[in-house]
Amino acid sequence: MAIESTLNEWEPRIRSVLRIAAGLLLLQHGTAKILGIPPMENFANLQIASLIGVAGLIELIGGILFIIGLCTRPTAFILSGFTAVAYFMAHASKSFYPILNGGELAALYSFVFLYFVFAGPGPWSVDAARRSA
After folding, report:
1. Could you tell me which of 16, 11, 132 has the C-alpha nearest to residue 69?
2. Is the dihedral of CA 93, 95, 96, 99 positive or negative?
3. pLDDT tens for each residue of the chain, 133 residues long
4. CA 31 to chain centre
């Protein structure tokens, strides 16, 4: 019983850690596309107005907002839809099974972001700081 109580006490903080980690992982997609960091050959001549360019902007801005926990629920809603669309556009037509179509990461991102729509950002966030001020 004591261990469950301790785990329950830590849940909000671990939710914040998950939010930060998911945001950092998404952010790297945006920085690669928009800022060229890390440099990737397939994004070398990326046009901002292209579909991939717009995706990079969403990943960059959404990743930053998600990491710091600002407007977390609406950001998570947008990112959940964005990654679901990415799954269906880039992966689903290759195979029904995510393990075969390479879409496991996009599908998992979509559900992680959907979780945050309902769970909120956790205590280590700008949203939480604004609520307590």
Report:
1. 16
2. negative
3. 799 999 999 999 999 999 999 999 999 999 999 999 999 999 999 999 999 999 999 999 999 999 999 999 999 999 999 999 999 999 999 999 999 999 999 999 999 999 999 999 999 999 999 999 7
4. 13
User: How far is the C-alpha of 65 from the C-alpha of 87, rounded, in Å?
Assistant: 22
Q: How far apart are CA 13 and CA 6, in angstroms?
A: 12
Packing angle, helices 51-68 and 2-30, rounded to 10: 150
**What are 107's two structure tokens?**
């599908």
Distance of CA 56 to the CA centre of its chain: 12
Is pTM beyond 0.85 here? yes
